[in-house]
Predict the 3D structure of the following.
Amino acid sequence: MNSLSRWTRRSRPLFSVYLPVMPFVFFALFPLYFMFITSFKKNAELYDVTAVPFLIGRGVTFGHYELLSRETLFWSWFLNSLMVSLAATVISVVLGVLAAYPLARLRFPGGDSFGVAIFITYLVPPSLLFLPLSTVVARLGLSDSLWALVVTYPTFLVPFCTWLLMGYFRTVPKEIEECAMLDGCNRLQTLIRILLPVAVPGVICAALFAFTLSWNEFLYALVFVSPAELKTLTVGVFSELIRGDVYYWGGLMAGACVGSFPIVIAYVFFLDYYVSGLTAGAVK
Amino acid sequence: MRLKTLDNGDVAKIAVRGDAHARALSDVLVSDTSVAYAFIAPAFFLLLFLVAYPFVLSVWFSLSDARIGETGAFIGFDNFQRLLSSAIFLQTLQNSIVFTALALGAKTVFGMALALLLYRIGRFKRLIRGAVLLPFIVPTALSTLVWWWMFEPLYSVVNWTLKSLHLVSHDIPWLPDPYLAMFTVILVNVWRGLPFFAITLLAGLVAIPKELYEAAESDGAGAVGRFWHVTIPLVKPVLAVVVLFSAIFTLGDFNIVYVLTKGGPMNMTHLFATYSFVLGLQGGQIGQGAAVSLFLFPILLIVVFIQLRMVRKATTYE
């Protein structure tokens, strides 16, 4: 009797929490699992309507990855994505740190309005501005070059980084800064030597998000850059592996796997930063 | 206290003790106001030239007959009038409302349910949270490809499963059928957006003091009563922010629709973003395309207005 009641007490969360959460976990993970196994299936199995689709039944192949490497510019796209994302991240974090500091710390005319302006641009979806931006990019002579993306990605990254870092800077006590200024540091030195080391988690979080958003970006990359060898990974996989009516499903899935890989790795190592960055916009 | 009375001049004098290089810099950074402007300048000019200016340009385009490569002439509200009498645009408008309302509703209900479950999880907390957050992190354009493959007419894993379970006898035309296509597009949007709702609402749940639940329980409130009278009122501000935030980005969605259906079949899944892409870039009618995407602007304004009011309220009453 005693052991039975202990069993029911211990198993209650199993039925009220763990079992109900399973459908959600399945829903979240199944497409990614399916993407992964599809990329290793042989075409014969892939296009056999009678084969069980959930498992790899007739042996693993790396053929789709080979197709990707040999017959497409996949690794160029990978490199383009990497370069653009790194450059946009560095620019955005630097501009974000610089803008967040006075907004969090100093009182100056126009400060509140600029804060509101940052907030509004933070909410502007890229789909609102891609048409006029393509004209601006063309006038700057940046069409069909990766610079178009390096320059335009910060338009949605800087507001995000600024917003995030403002919150972090506000949590640092003012006193340590004032001590540093008394010791002869100016504002810039205080920011770099005193505030930034304390706000490292915020900077990491901003950088991770900026990198992820740049890596995942699709619309601007699709619109501003058209030569095949200059495409980013998200656009390249989508537009070059579908030729007319021919879909290279294995290749598409292989490309999607490799394209998701860097983000998933960063995510596994920095899960807590992602969670805090995700909730920063809504919960202070 | 002495710190407070120190004015900028003193700080500058103290700063001058550094080497000559630092002195030159500190002269620039003496006054707080000019420091603030100097720090903000790069971000300000970036947003001025690449957000504010394109926005003005967008308004101008929408009032002109601009085509790709031509500046166009002022034509007043012709573009808007033509759009409002175009069947495709009215369809797009209807799609946008249906898509946003259903996706937001589903994300709110299931996101809340998932948040409540995650809140009560003890073991494997990080593992499960990490798993459900994953769809939000991977590139949408790529993850939508696998959804396409899962709903592919001939080899759909969903149809295979339904047929194996003898729930249906023939293939369901997920993407060729207009209504099912809309369902599929919403499903993928919910798949991608659910983690954001769940994780943010979870943060809101964690912030509710435990004492309130204990007090409600000692007053005789059951689980349902506690949910309606403690959880909901206290998580409401977070919920409002999440819904407003997601409203903009759901309405402005491009990736999922463009990859999965390209707006078809028969324009039945077009949203503002995809239709403006088709009109403005593929059709070359920048004026009309800009007018379509500007329909996103009113909702943006409403959301900004409500959120700013909520932020002000929170700061005055806390």
